[in-house]
Amino acid sequence: MLKFLLLVNKQGQTRIAQYYEYISHEERVPFEAEIIRKCLARNETQCSIMEFRNYKVVYRRYASLFFIVGVDALENELGVLEFIHNIVETLDRLFENVCELDIMFNIDRTHMILEEMIMNGCIVETNRTNILQPLQMLDQSS
Length: 142
Hints:
By secondary structure, the chain is α+β, with helices and mostly antiparallel strands. Helix content is 47%, strand content 26%. It has helices spanning 25-41, 77-95, 100-105, 107-117, 128-141, and strands at residues 2-9, 14-19, 49-52, 55-62, 65-71, 118-119, 122-123. The protein is globular and about 45 Å long.
């Protein structure tokens, strides 16, 4: 089960943060800072799976963005890596070669995609056509 998902740029600025279990705002700020610092400090030859507190953290870098996902101990890490790749491919299909600016200027659409894919920390949809269908319907109606 997913516990959190962070989209972070190379400078360590959080672009999107979604939590699927309650963490107070006072705890989130140092939590995010520490986990981002650890992920950014790792080099490309190191494994992209690590343990942090009571989470398994799976991250992947695409261009200037880090996709960081925290999961419980029972989750399959390779499945989470594949899920991160699926998120990027879905965003690529929507924005045609997604970049940080696409996410920042279309943050509502990005959140909609993530909400279509994840519900209460469970991955519920991976089919890109089904994920993008509500956005296409919104575009057609406006």
